[in-house]
Specification:
heterodimer, A: 220 residues, alpha/beta, Rossmann fold, 2 domains, 4-stranded mixed beta sheet, globular, B: 494 residues, 6-stranded parallel beta sheet, 12 strands, disordered N terminus
Chain lengths: 220, 494
Amino acid sequence: MSSERDARSAILGSIRSALGVHAERDISTREAEYAALPREYKQTSTKSGEELLALFTHRLEEYDAGVLRVSRNEIAAAVARLLSQRGRRRIGIPDDLPSAWLPAGLAFEKSAAFDAHQLDTLDGVLTGCTVAIAETGSIVLQNTGAQGPRALSLVPDYHLCVVFAAQIVETVPECFTRLEATASLPTTFVSGPSATADIEMTRIKGVHGPRFLDVLIVED
Amino acid sequence: MSAPEHSHFSSRNFPEAAKELLADSQLRKNVRHATDVIQAKRNRVVAELPDWEALRDAGSGIRAHALAHLDHYLAEFEQNCMRAGGQVHWARDAVEANRIILGLIQRHEAKEVIKIKTMTSEEIGLNRNLEANGIRPHETDLAELIVQLGHDKPSHFVVPALHKNRQQVRAIFQREMHLPELGDKPEDLCAAARTYLREKYLRIKVAVSGANFLVAENGAVCIVESEGNGRMCLTLPDVLISLVGIEKVIPRFRDLEVLLQTLPRSATGERMNPYNSIWTGVHAGDGPKEFHVVLLDNGRSPILADAEARQTLKCIRCAACLNVCPVYHQTGGHAYESVYAGPIGAILTPQLHSMEEGRSLPYASSLCGACYEVCPVKINIPEVLIHLRGKVVEQDQKTFAGKLDPWNVGMQAAKFVMTSAGRFTLAQHMGQLAQRAFVSKNGFIEHLPFMLSGWTQTRDLKALPAQSFRDWWAQREPRGSAGADAPKGDRDVK
């Protein structure tokens, strides 16, 4: 441990001597330099309403994810329909998933506390999300509310994600503005089903993460 | 513990290694195909962003600022990572990093570890060191798995197995996974990898990763990937060890809004790669119970002292410069004999080794500048290449053999001649006389003698004209009086 402490001061010392500084510099200088960094890139939306939803849908479909648009009172029925189409029976859910999303007559299991082996026996998982990005077709999951721990939406082979229209932003910067308050929660950006291009640069769907992804867009 | 060494360095220089690889037509075909496909995808998704240049400026600014205050941001990261329950270790070099990682694995009595692709672990030769100590590392990225099972070396740092085609991959999997019936469709190969690795994800308790970014502001770590193998390694094991170069830190969480746009589009030509994971420390009920970050220097900090070359450390490892490079396009990555190939490797590798290794790499470029144009953080690679060539020359000139090297003698002679008008004119006249024996009827020199023959091996040299420009200028009719008229003439031209 003491050699690691030596290493720490040696590395920081080497950095300072290379940079030609001999002590911690003035905070205000650093902050002023940071504030002056160029940020001329797009940070706000130019699209809204139907145009935004259409862009998000298009991006998801390009990744080969399934997309279904429903109204708030149709969620449970749409969940039932998608699960039956996909032939998925045992579905894991996070502890705080709204019961109104769950169709009657199907087996949903609260599985936030499942270990990896138990998760591996599920047919799929149903979650909400924190925010979604239309321009990149991404959904962002955090360990909170209706989303559960990271392994829950990873190990089962099928992921059905409920996204409310109000959760969809157009650009990546808008997404980060929304995430700022909960930035230290475990966070996963999901853009389509798991895929690889490692063999001859062909995008192949489905390696280790869920091979099938459906997104239910709920319009108010 | 056996002494680790730098992974793939040999005594061969780039031209020697390249010569051998250029003879492998299958490899060249695979590399050409792969880089053509990635470039086309990259160009398409970059073209659809009207603010691409603004994102490059922002990314460049963020990375340069982080490096200019690296001591501060590393300490801030360390403090926030520890506050969130992570443990931070510092390693001056490969030996220290290997010792720390091995110690952590041994403390948990693990005999196997699962790994996410990390070039930094290649850099310190981690796998060989673990194996020498009885620990089996399993690469989980598909391409790294192909490389590992094929007892091969990575040739690209985003797609390490891009030099293998599907038939070659099938042959490796058939042999190593004992699947004689395996087909060669990419889907079959992915399915085989999924089954092979899933059992390991569920069983092995220690994972090793690299990282794309460290966030100073909140101690977060960010890893960008495609397959979900990263997520498996980051969430299922009890212990996670992330080995990260000290240059990977960025000031704030929101800086990711820039780099997570430019990195995926530059690296794989996707608007966003399938998965990005961002986490801080440990979280009860979600992911590993123990999280370690090993911060690695290994030759990075001295690079900061070189104002011109410091920009090398802005690199976010997208590999766009490899895909666009006409030299890489021909040779592939192995010719660089370095973990970091391509244009960025040509400037990073020699600097990481204090210009003692990889000294032929700054010359492995035509200086066409394509790498600078695609770089998402605007590293001026051609500028650094020339700067490093200068350093190589300066180093050579300090040795006796270097001073007597024909190149140096020639260059010093050229300098002597060209820095004086009188000497230059005299040299031209001598050249006109001396060339007579070599000029063909067509006015070209087709064969030069001795050492100079290399120049005329593949091209002809235009002979010096009977009257040089300087002679002509001296003999021309003086027109009007100079001085007063000249500035006016200048203005007219404009």
